[in-house]
Design goal:
This protein has 85 residues and is of the alpha+beta class. The protein has one domain. The strands form two sheets. A two-stranded antiparallel sheet has the order 1-2. The protein has a two-stranded antiparallel sheet with strand order 3-4. β3 and β4 form a beta hairpin. α1 packs parallel to α2. The termini are far apart.
Length: 85
């Protein structure tokens, strides 16, 4: 039977984890620069010149919101800061 068993469960779990982690970083992330001890912004995929997004209806609400904000408002919000796209 296709799509059953431990392998299918592991694949579904891994896919969901990857989808969630990508969704969190689609707009970008702030990270602590250990050398300067300050947070710095690293832009995510929405800052690319060309971005291919497929099956947005399957994305998490957070990911969908980030894409819509980037398309409509030409900005993204990361850690309560607005960054122009």
């Amino acid at each position: 039977m296709k799509g059953s068993g431990v392998g299918a469960v592991a694949e579904a779990t891994a896919t969901a984890a990857i989808r969630e982690s990508v969704g969190r970083a689609i707009a970008g992330i702030s990270y602590l620069n250990q050398r300067t001890q300050q947070f710095q912004f690293h832009p995510g995929p929405v800052f690319a010149n060309v971005l291919l997004a497929e099956e947005m209806s399957r994305a998490t609400p957070r990911t969908q919101s980030a894409f819509l904000e980037a398309m409509e408002e030409k900005q993204v919000t990361v850690d309560l800061s607005h960054v122009e796209v």
